[in-house]
Design goal:
The complex is a heterodimer of chains A (about 300) and B (about 325).
Chain A (H helix, E strand, L loop, with lengths): L2 H4 L5 H28 L3 H7 L11 H8 L2 H33 L6 H13 L4 H11 L6 H9 L2 H12 L3 H9 L4 H12 L1 H16 L3 H6 L8 H21 L11 H36 L1
Helix pairs in contact in A: 2-15, 4-15, 5-8, 5-9, 5-12, 6-9, 12-15, 14-15
Chain B lengths: L1 H9 L3 H32 L17 H4 L6 H6 L3 H33 L4 H12 L6 H12 L5 H8 L14 H26 L3 H9 L4 H26 L6 H6 L8 H4 L2 H9 L5 H30 L7
Helix pairs in contact in B: 5-9, 5-11, 5-14, 6-9, 11-15, 14-15
The chains are: A mainly alpha (about 300), B mainly alpha (about 325).
Amino acid sequence: MITAVKKGKFRPGNLVIHGVFTFLALGCIVPMLLVVILSVSDTKSIVEHGYSLFPSKLSIEAYQYIFRSPKLILDSYGTTLFVTIVGTGVGLILTAMIAYALSRRDYKLAGIVGFLVFFSMLFNAGMIPNYIIFTKYYLMKDTYWILILPGLINSWNIILLRTFFFDLPQEVLESASIDGCSEMRIFWQMVLPISKPALATIGLMMMLGYWNEWTRSMIYIDTESKYMLQYLLYKILRNAEEMMKDSQVGMSLGAAEFPSDSAKMAMAVIAAGPMMFVFPFFQKYFVRGITSGAVKG
Amino acid sequence: MVKATIASKVLPGFRKSFKKNSLRKNVDFTLLALPAFVLLLFFNFVPMPGITLAFKNYNFVDGIFGSPWIGMKNFHFIFSTPDALLALKNTIVYNAAFIVTGIGGSVILAILLNEILSRGFLKFYQTAIFLPYFLSWTIVAYIVFALLDNSKGMVNSILDVIGMQKVEWYFEPKYWFLINLFLHFWKTMGYATLLNYAYILSIDPSYYEAASIDGANRFQMAMKITIPALRPIILINFLGALGRIFNADFGQFFLVPMESPSLTGVSSVLDTYVYSALRGSADLGMGAAAGLFQSIAGFVLVLAANFIIRYRYGREQAMF
């Protein structure tokens, strides 16, 4: 790009810039690394030296401990996987369907439906009215429905996808329509396959949203096995804290039932792990998505 | 058009079939839009009458619609009870600080990132600073705990080693404004930097070539070319953030301080206030009023921001 200016000269300014970014990159990676290292630290070493990046002894007992009685975490993992997969899959298809309809200029209701979609993005009833309606009238308290349904449709995603669909070659779609292809078939057999990158971007965003969701578990769910992973994790972090306060009074009180420090951190690793596997794909599509979006404005 | 008229003369049924075709199309579109629309209706629009709760003295027996009206009293109370006022103040102060550091920081970082030519380093830095964006606030709460725990936290160990006094972080509110500021920056800078960076890449390189022929150095180019070119996106980010100034990140302010009572003063924001009303530690009607205040103020601010962008930078830049 500016190669003519930049090439061939060594400039001390570059060292400063690399210094800044190395510092920032380490600042982002090291704290995450700390959690991973703590999860494989020996308990004794934690007791002696506190939480350290360089434990005197490594051990996988934390993971063994968790998988000895894995019911709690497996239930929650199951719930989270189920909610994430169903929510992302169904949500993505429904979002694409409405976004496509709204992107077609020959759809007569596009104006009013589009306005309502916009409006729901700008204004919502808020936590308390939602709570009362969802629990009192929809009877969704402590169900899987409440974990999935409210997150299925996000107006912002509809608008993003619609913008993408606007840029599809309209002549091709129209000629297919003139050739007698129904709109349904055009959508399923032409639009969806050529929209894979955009669908991947939105799908990954929805997936991240579901996987990291915790508020609905906190507000609506009473049964522990239906907790989403992130909320269970927070409960563990909190309860272990209370336990520590209690343990100053009486050390013996059920200490074995609560995870030790390293087990707590191992839980965090287990919960964040899958998203780290998805990260490279996310990076690829997401960066492409936001960059094209930013340029377009 | 000409074709169509000829066709309709030759084949009398053509216009009719064309109309029928258009109807079928619209039915198809409606069927496509329907499921999402129904969900939107049930989960966004049906709860809306519930906002009347903000004007009522709620009691459980009478429910939303049966409880007696009390006019604007809940709003009066919000602006006169210390808890709600504190939440309001914190929300605004934090967001103002987030806007300044977030936009300033991400613009500077994007400009610096643009100076890095090695593809390998570029990719590494981008990936690394983008990582925290993916973590849930729960995981961030774990990280903060590992760093700041009063007895075993890594920061206290370091303070100990270099001979400084340990700090009981979860009991010391005075540090938490900075901690929250830092955390917000840490979690969002990668995303914001990438957005700005993408915008910089779209600047016409001939500006830089001309400037370098005139002997401008890199700092001058950044100040005179890059920053003016970034101005629209900076302004759009600014106005967008302004529109959300009454909304705080619930996860950050609820999960990270781990509900430590000592930290309520610095971690109470409107969103946590509304939640505490739902849990019964504040009045439900007042919580609903605070929520409605957030919704309406946010709505008005977003519209205003959009109006300004549209008026000043044209339709394409505006959200709608």
